[in-house]
Every structure is written in structure tokens, then in C-alpha cells.
Design goal:
Elements: H1 2-34, H2 36-46, H3 53-61, H4 64-68, H5 74-89, H6 97-117, H7 122-135, H8 139-152, H9 157-167, H10 172-177, H11 179-192, H12 195-201, H13 210-220, H14 222-225
Helix pairs in contact: 2-5, 3-5, 5-6, 6-7, 7-8, 8-11, 9-11, 11-13
Length: 234
């Protein structure tokens, strides 16, 4: 009798687990189907393909479906990030302020949602800092976001070089507020970075970043910086 009860319990557990997995699989499938077009357009943008402005606008607006559906799957969330940033990049604040403001606000809102799903994503913190800087230069807030990006990916070469692009555009106040993170990035870039990629990145340095960069250049020493003086054939 006890044996039969054990078999029954095992069967019940098996059925419950099977149903649970089926429900989860069904939700994932539904999420993939519902966001398939968003992912397709985002992938085309990431590959450098041509996507019309109206198409970008249409699917960027649909990224709200990701938020409303509470989808936190990395590929779905990342596709939405690509679209909202592409939509913002295509706006001109001097031509149509309202459209730019809506795109900037939408991108900031979506990136906050993306970070609620993936708070350890260095790139998302960087993008949020960049979007915030276009809306209003809040040095302390932006510096905090940049610090998190640096902490989460301190030695990832592509992230360091991407951050340099934005460091180059921030104001004196923001650079001062993020001094330790900025110094860390510059030192890492000059000591460990590929000389060809770094040479391309430092070709133009903003007036506000120049004195900070020059101090970092001097601090790492001639042994580290001499290689950047060599001709890069790539």
C-alpha cells in the first residue's frame, strides 16, 4: 500500500513539474512571437543595414510592449534598447524639438526598465548616462551611471573605447564628478589597449578632456605610451 502511495506521489510531482515547464515554455514562445519583428529590425540596424526612419519610429514605439509584457529576456530587452537609441539618434533637436524630446524621454524610460532586468549590464548604464546627458547635464547623476559602467566592465576593451567616446563629450563638471572612474578608464586604455584602436579613438580630444588625458598619458610613463607613436598600418 505504501509502495502504491509512493508511485502516486511521484506521478503527481512529475505531472506538476511537466505542466510548470510547459507553461514556462509557452510564455517564452509567446514572448518570442510577440517581439519577433522588433528583434528582426534591431538586428538589421546592428548589422549596419538600411532601415527607413518611419520603420525605426514604428518599432521603437512598440518597445513599450516589452515593458508592458514584463519581458526580461536579455535578447528581447537588448533589441528594444537598439531601437529606442536608433530612434533618438535620428532626431534633430533643432528641427523638431517635440519629436526629439519624446524620443529622449522614451529612451531614458526604456533604459531604466532594461537595467531593472539587467542591473549588471555595463553598456546599459553607459547608454543611460549618455541619454541623460542629452536631456539635462546632471553631473552627479551621470557620473554615478558612468562609475557603474566602469566597475562592471573595467577591462573590456570595446566598452572602454566606447566610454571614451562619451567621456570626450561630457562637460567639465561631469568629468570632475567621475574623476576616479575616468582616470581608471584612461589608464586601462593607455596601458592595455590595442594601439591602433586607441590611436583612432584619441585622434580628436575635446578641450575639457585634454588636460585630464595629458595627465594620464604622463602618469603611465613613456614605456606604456611609446608604442602609440608607431605607425599603425591597420
Amino acid at each position: 500500500m505504501f509502495g502504491s502511495r509512493s508511485v502516486s506521489v511521484t506521478r503527481v510531482v512529475f505531472v506538476v513539474v511537466t505542466v510548470a515547464f510547459a507553461v514556462l515554455a509557452g510564455r517564452e514562445l509567446y514572448a518570442s512571437i510577440r517581439t519577433a519583428s522588433i528583434s528582426i529590425v534591431a538586428e538589421r540596424i546592428e548589422r549596419g543595414g538600411t532601415v527607413a526612419d518611419d520603420v525605426v519610429a514604428k518599432y521603437a514605439s512598440r518597445s513599450i510592449e516589452v515593458v508592458d509584457g514584463h519581458y526580461c529576456r536579455s535578447d528581447i530587452v537588448a533589441a528594444g534598447v537598439t531601437l529606442v537609441l536608433a530612434q533618438l539618434d535620428r532626431q534633430n533637436v533643432n528641427v523638431n524639438y517635440d519629436a526629439w524630446a519624446a524620443a529622449a524621454s522614451g529612451a531614458r524610460q526604456y533604459l531604466r526598465y532594461a537595467l531593472s532586468c539587467m542591473p549588471t549590464n555595463s553598456n546599459f548604464w553607459l547608454r543611460l548616462a549618455a541619454v541623460q546627458s542629452t536631456i539635462a547635464e546632471d553631473p552627479v547623476s551621470i557620473a554615478g551611471m558612468m562609475k557603474r559602467s566602469v566597475v562592471l566592465a573595467p577591462h573590456d576593451e570595446m566598452m572602454v573605447l566606447t566610454r571614451f567616446y562619451f567621456w570626450n563629450d561630457f562637460t567639465d563638471a561631469t568629468l570632475a564628478a567621475a574623476k576616479r572612474a575616468l582616470d581608471s578608464d584612461l589608464t586601462t586604455m593607455l596601458k592595455l589597449g590595442d594601439r591602433c584602436r586607441v590611436n583612432a579613438a584619441i585622434k580628436e580630444i575635446s578641450p575639457q578632456l585634454r588636460p585630464i588625458f595629458d595627465r594620464s598619458w604622463a602618469s603611465v610613463g613613456d614605456g606604456a605610451t611609446a608604442r602609440f607613436r608607431q605607425r599603425c598600418s591597420r
